[in-house]
Automatic annotation (TrEMBL):
Keywords in alphabetical order: Aspartyl protease, Disulfide bond, Hydrolase, Protease, Signal, Zymogen
Stated name of the protein: Acid protease
Any one Pfam family match given in the protein's UniProt record, by short name: Asp
Signal peptide: 1-17
Species for this entry: Gigaspora margarita
Length: 355
């Protein structure tokens, strides 16, 4: 299977049913910015996402072993270097900054028992300050491409933008691999994938909000602004469609299953068009992931893509394009062409390709 991992170029609404008007419930998001050069981060991303999606993206065990080795030897990749967007939530009347991640399905924050230096600069959950907290104590380990977090579970009320998940089971991390967490701008991770992807084996906060009818509609929307235009900010809207964030009509695409279950936000891609030339990609699927600021493709697909980009070049699997490129690129999804702004085709000051 050919899988793309795609950054979100445009407003996306994750929808489960027909549109119904309701009151907007939104929170502001801030972008996580990598601390290292684009070239370094690109290689780390390739390894990180290879491991994160190894069950559906890569079947070559030698490649997986090599990626694990490179990451274990790297001092550059921490959770702070994995891009994404974070915002504030409340758990048990305590406020935390969490990374809203489409590619995972668990909510975790640091426990009061997490005392290592990597956690000392982050907000930790104090059980004694919450009258609604209930300990569960089930141990868990959540693996990320950059390492893992370990802890136990608890239950409390979770509030996001005025929407509450009552009695939400979440993780209280007690330790993490090495410096995995040390520079992160956020305190924990808020998984926005499907329930079947949960390592804690529980219902996600948003699924609970839907089941408890805390939201009028079972969908959420992500609006991400281009940093060159408005700064690295965005908006997460729960249970509503914010019509001020887009023009035209919404388009709908079915989500694909993995091993018969809904896990990732994965959709079919018809093709890619560059300067009017269709690349003739067939049977491609794309995983939408907020934790990524580039598009990841199998190498042969990336090579084909860059053959159509004017004056692009390659060195050891890394592609560069003209900083002021005027190429017209469109992703064709569900029969609709989505034009990509030229500024999104380039990342970093060294004109690295966005693919």
């Amino acid at each position: 299977m050919h899988i793309f991992i795609i950054r979100l170029f445009f407003t996306i609404f994750i929808v489960d049913s027909a549109l119904v008007t309701s009151k907007s419930n939104s929170i502001s998001l801030n972008k996580i910015t990598p601390k290292h050069s684009v070239k370094v981060v690109h290689q780390l991303y390739k390894d990180y996402f290879m491991l994160k999606y190894q069950n559906i993206y890569v079947s070559d065990q030698d490649e997986i072993a090599s990626a694990k080795k490179r990451l274990s030897e790297s001092a550059n990749l921490t959770l702070s270097n994995v891009c994404g967007y974070y915002g504030e939530i409340t758990i048990g009347n305590q406020t935390f900054k969490t990374n809203f991640d489409l590619g995972s399905s668990d909510l975790w924050i640091p426990s009061q028992d997490y005392t290592s230096y990597s956690c000392s600069i982050h907000k930790r959950f104090n059980e004694s300050l919450s009258k609604t907290f209930k300990p569960i104590g089930t141990p868990f380990t959540i693996e990320y491409g950059a390492g893992s977090v370990i802890g136990i579970t608890g239950k409390d009320n979770v509030l996001v933008g005025g929407i509450k998940s009552v009695g939400q089971i979440f993780g209280l991390t007690q330790e993490a691999d090495g410096d995995l967490f040390i520079e992160a701008e956020y305190d924990g991770i808020f998984g926005m994938g499907f329930d079947a992807l949960s390592e804690i084996k529980t219902t996600t906060p948003f699924s609970n909000m839907v089941k408890q009818k805390a939201v009028t509609n079972p969908y959420f929307g992500l609006y991400l602004q281009r940093s060159n235009d408005h700064g690295d900010v965005g908006t997460l809207t729960l249970g509503d469609i914010d019509t001020t964030k887009f023009i035209g009509k919404l388009n709908y695409n079915n989500v694909s299953t993995t091993d018969g279950e809904y896990k990732y936000w994965i959709i079919d891609v018809d093709d890619i068009s560059i300067n009017g030339n269709n690349l003739k990609f067939k049977n491609r699927k794309a995983i939408l992931d907020t934790g990524n600021n580039i598009v990841l493709m199998p190498y042969n697909d990336a090579l084909t893509y860059h053959q159509f980009i004017i004056r692009s070049s390659e060195l050891n699997g890394h592609f560069t394009v003209p900083c002021n490129t005027t190429d017209q690129v469109a992703y064709i999804i569900g029969g609709v062409s989505y034009n990509i702004d030229q500024s999104d085709l380039v990342t970093g000051s060294n004109c690295a390709s966005g693919v």
